[in-house]
């Protein structure tokens, strides 16, 4: 506590001893009644000074301990000159100031770590030792919105396998699971790891949706394949077309009946080579990723325009138009969305016309509570068999004799370029239902 405090304590002890010796001397000497009283008062006074000094020391130390106990780092200790407690007050204030600085640094670091976890774009879930599941950041709270409760069973709505992985004693692993999110099946990488903390065991589960990434990779692979195939085929076909044209010209200049069959064959070869070149060139647009120019436009007039275009092409098909709510805005590229919807409506009209005596098509546009826009086209045609539903989006795949296999692939490219999804389901009308979520 410093030499000043020690010197003052020793002085008080010395004064007490002197006062007690004087008081004892007065008691032993006869005839000193008044002196005895004065000596007794002096002895009592010095004892009180010593007691006050010790009490103040105890009080200051107790204040310091209480400040540490309750984490009150704003307390200040008396360092007044001449009090004898300057060194002790300085030491206590220095310790409190250091603890206050360390607490502020720890609080800042904790705040940074909490913000880092909360703003991490990958959903994080924590599982406590008692099985309580918490959504640890914003990404998790945005992704998992359909459950009620905090147990693994409550998360079964997203998939039974996923719920099993949330059990505290489930194996720690990394795997790709199919989760049901927003009514749609999506692939996600699920990782889990064990944690140890003071309150017991815990584990963290990381969920990384990858469906959009897989879609983009698939589309990129398809477009690269189409680009390479069309390039190589056209390179090989160009000289064939040129030679067929040259041969046809040369044969037409020779008047020999014996060459009639050759002329017909070469002419046919020339026409077919030119037709095949045009056919291949038409597929080159599949290899070009759509360029999106987003802007907000009203759904009602847009849907009405699509209906007019459809009725002009298919006046014999009944078209039902559904908008919920009646007025809302769509944030997308209106030209590309129009191209996608025209393709879907045309396919639906052809399917319904070839299957039903009363062909019917329904166009639905809905604003969902999640903020997404659902655009669905359904019909009362024959539908699409379950085993063909993923194939219909592949380039060049078609179930119609006159189809090219380009339309639905372009629709999917447009939807994916908007960051959306498209699914093929059964429609209430009895046929196929193509639903886009933008």
**Can you name the CATH architecture of the largest domain?**
2-Layer Sandwich
CATH topology of the largest domain: Heat Shock Protein 90
Low-confidence stretches: none
Rg, alpha carbons = 44 Å
Note the total helix count: 10
Helix content: 40-55%
Count of strand segments: 12
The total number of structural domains is 4
Question: Which term fits the overall shape?
Answer: rod-shaped
Oligomer state equals: single chain
Q: What fraction of the residues are assigned to beta strands by DSSP?
A: 15-25%
* Mean of residue pLDDT values: 79
The major beta sheet can be summarized as: 5 strands, antiparallel
The CATH homologous superfamily of the largest domain is called Histidine kinase-like ATPase, C-terminal domain
| Helix-strand topology string | HHHEEHHEEEHHEHEEHEEHEE
Class inferred from helices and paired strands? alpha+beta
Placed side by side, the strands forming the largest sheet appear as 2-1-5-4-3
